[in-house]
Specification:
This protein is of the alpha/beta class. It is globular. Helix content is 49%, strand content 16%. The mean pLDDT is 88. Helix 2 links the parallel strand 2 and strand 3. Helix 1 packs across helix 7, helix 1 crosses helix 8 and helix 3 packs parallel to helix 4.
Length: 221
Amino acid sequence: MIVALVSQKGGCGKSTLAISLAVEWHRRGFRTLLVDADPQGTALAWGEVAAEKGRKGPTVIAMGDNLRADLPGLSKGYEVTVIDTPGRQSKRTIGALVRADLALIPCGPSPADLWALGETVELVQGVEELRPDLLTAIVVNGDQKRTALSKATKKAVAAAGYPVLGASLGQRVAFAEAVAAGKGVTSIRDGGMAANELRRVADEIESMVEEAKGEGAAHVA
């Protein structure tokens, strides 16, 4: 399973989510590769902190513009690959989408996030011409649950035309605290609600990819 996190706007929590998802799949026993294709290098810096502290977790590597060509060989030894893409359209982003099973688009509750969502959707739609089997889903990140803003955000996100995960992620400090400690939110003792939300997101992603691959195998048969 290859999951590419994609957004044309910085500050949507893309890197933090990529890290926590990779940690969670590692905790579930999957051989997991976390690819940092973002020039900001957040995932790579996190991996260095984790290594310094002796944390066990996913393998972390940086990849550049040759991602499309290099990823198949590098990901072959892993059951799950999570790609943190740049916060803008680039050769790396296109390469990640071409190789991914699922494009996951994090979207925050602000108007700026919703405006940027349209740009991200256009990018993914362009890649779908090459990869009509690419799965795409949107996850609401920084959700202010049970508020008018939350309802308006989910309504606007649903209008983008892609499935919206039933699980959303709230504005919780545990995500940032976990990354700073070289961990994922599901591997810290006080992860609480944040950890539960992340697990539900991981569950939904697994189900989507497994279902799609099952349908593809049945179609071939």
